[in-house]
Amino acid sequence: MRMTSRPEHLLIEHLGAQLVTVGEEIPERARHDWSGQQPVCPLAWIRPRSTEEVSAVLRICNELRLAVVPQGGLTGLAGGAHPVAGCVALSLERMNGIEEIDPAMATMTVGAGVVLEAAQAAAEAAGLFLALDLGARGSCTIGGVLATNAGGNRVIRYGMAREHVLGVEVVLADGTVVTSLNKMLKNNAGYDSKQLFVGSEGTLGVITRAVLRLQPRPTFSTCALCGCRDFAAAMALLAAARSGLGPSLTAFEVMWPSFYHFMGEKLPSLPQPLAGRHGIYVLIEVSGFDAEREAERLEALLAKGLEAGDVEDAVVAASGRDVAAFWAIRESVSEYSKVIGKVAAFDVGLPAHATGQVVERLEAGAVQRWPDAIALSYGHVGDSNLHFVANVPSAGAEQPSAEISAFVYETVRSSGGTISAEHGIGTLKRQYLPYTRSPSELDLMRRIKSALDPNGILNPGKVLEWPPEPEAGTR
């Protein structure tokens, strides 16, 4: 296709004004994600309604060498859906159909634009359970959740997003449609190509439809909030919970005092069910099919913890309202913009035995470098996932984000951890990817990228430097 006019005009000519929005008509929400970067107005905002239209978009953009940034619910925190200058923002929001729920196979077939909460509700209405869950459930979409291999609250029991998907339909950079909407739990025929695209952040292809694995819906669920002596006590409680609760253990969330007390003081409406102050706080969720037995197991676990001195105080939810109140403490992270302002937020993975020491190093190191720093720690520690956020009040709007990042990621690297546990790489972590992946792993990633997207149009600048920087001496 010859570039005889402006590329946005060619897009409108070939795709139609119903799909393509340009200029000032592009809404503000399409110009940024949740990563906190400065908004960028894309060249065009395209909202296809079908896989065929996605194919047409990518085919034209590939011919024109136009960058394409796939967008879902725009709730990503690493910049994976953030537009780049001169790009086409490809929104999948119109592809929001729940096509089928198959009770016999325990599967759900959905479009990439389906909001996670809507998929959860549809599964529940069918008497089944979509176990994938995260705080942005009301905004994030299935396509984005799979593209980032999101984690969330129930990973300890059900696994990351890739464990919830049986098949996908994907459009490649040149417009080729690869449909593999497998429903079978066992299908060992050749390469499992869907796993190339789950977690690839839209750099290898655009997920348009997916088959999700559903579970039997638990008939009972409750939780307990515990005040523990210290991190070692919390780890002892985790080991006891795994052996004593088995598959009933669906969440094990840990909150350090820095987070628990700070948010409690800043948000007086948050419940305060525990008396006094404790070395660390744990939220345990259990679910199952025998309410009496599951409740007894939880109470026995807590009784043993209290007897051993690992648990200093504990409160078990007496109602659904209590469950929601306990989770509200952990999910108060959504209020950061109100109580702190701009934060440097980190999602890292660490060996369980090292997590307590790493938190001490991060919190003490932040204050040593920036004396008025606010440093908060919490996370899905049952999944080896730590979240750390920092803010330097004296810096105002000009937060030292780059310096904080370098400090945090170097600390994580030296402890044998990973720079990303569940949020992906996007643009914000790209330069630190070698901290986590070996040169041979990075080379393999580049080979795959080169094979599937030789023109580099899909989400450029995300995950990998593309095209790769020449090695020293080859310039």
UniProtKB/TrEMBL annotation:
Transmembrane feature ranges: none
InterPro entries from the UniProt entry: FAD-bd_oxidored_4_C, FAD-bd_PCMH, FAD-bd_PCMH-like_sf, FAD-bd_PCMH_sub2, FAD-linked_Oxase-like_C, FAD-oxidored/transferase_4, Oxid_FAD_bind_N, Vanillyl_alc_oxidase_C-sub2
Cofactors required: FAD
Keywords, comma-separated and alphabetical: FAD, Flavoprotein, Oxidoreductase
SUPFAM superfamilies: FAD-binding/transporter-associated domain-like (SSF56176), FAD-linked oxidases, C-terminal domain (SSF55103)
Annotated ranges, domain FAD-binding PCMH-type: 38-217
Record-linked Pfam families: FAD-oxidase_C, FAD_binding_4
UniProt KW Flavoprotein keyword: yes
Family: Belongs to the FAD-binding oxidoreductase/transferase type 4 family.
Protein's recorded name: FAD-binding oxidoreductase
Organism expressing this protein natively: Jiella sonneratiae
